[in-house]
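#struct-help
A.M.: can someone run this one for me? Single chain, 344 residues.
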Amino acid sequence: MTDRSLRFSLRHALLIGMSLVLAAGALIWLLRDISLGDVVQALQRLSLGEIVLVLLVNLGVTLVFSLRWWLILRLLGCRATIVEAWAIRLAGFAFSYLTPGTQFGGEPLQVALLQRRRRIASQAATASVVIDRAVELLGNATFLAFGLVLSLQLRLLPSEAQGAVSVGALALLLLPLGFLAAAVSGVRPLTALLTRLPLPTSWQSRAWRRLLEWTRTTEDEIVAFCRLRPAGLAASMGISLASWGLMVFEYGLLLAFLGIRLDPVELIGVITAGRLALLVPVPGGLGALEASQVLALTALGYSRAEGLSLGLLIRARDLVFAFAGMALGALSARGGVSPQEDTA
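D.P.: on it. Structure tokens below:
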């Protein structure tokens, strides 16, 4: 291990360690002055049928997300089935959710599992995942930007944070929007960056040239998709909109089953708080997610026990699908490549 990689590993470990300490602190703060009996009483409001209904709606959310990636794969010439796309994408979610980070990390696993199941070039497989994530990020960023504005109106965030929140909301939108706009315009930013890096002569190896060629080919796939299949890109965005509609509906169901009545603006504010908490670099926003729901609901006049109950339900739901994703990932890895030849 080189000195540079060692320093990077130490910084990464330090960041994870600090995040875990903060998560532990958030959990300790959550448990103060909260009667576990009140939390249990709030959770007991849910019947078995209501829990099953919430899980079925969330299953629908995962299927809609997978439908977007499946559509992109089909347009790229890969004949993966919707079940394969769903299983592999859920496995990617499980990896991202259960490892330190900000909801990323499962993308390479998606590429590897897809190639395990289908005869598809690594560049095309990577391009499909990148396009899918870019469209997803654009939808998430749009929702969060809108939710941040509503959170200020509801005073879920301090008024002093208005300037920083506005800048943050704009930044959330610009990254995925800029990436897709560049692809539609035929720009290949990563290839341009790599070709202009002032690298030492010793780095100009065959492996580097192969990496550069692989990057160029992958970006060619992305550019071709965005420029030649605008209807497919628009359909992918429409699927993202549908998935967000389902997620808001499912969140509303959870709150209603807990006896918490929020108007649409308040509902979006509470969801925004939870989504922002998932950006904390700890597995699944551990501690931060629960704290966000406590803070949001207490700001709206509900008890800390009700906020913690909501956070625990969301955590349990996510863990159910994360463990299901692990199992599906293992099954996908065991399966061999389909005898059908894919064109991608």
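A.M.: thanks! The longest helix spans residues 122-154.
D.P.: also worth noting: The mean pLDDT is 82.
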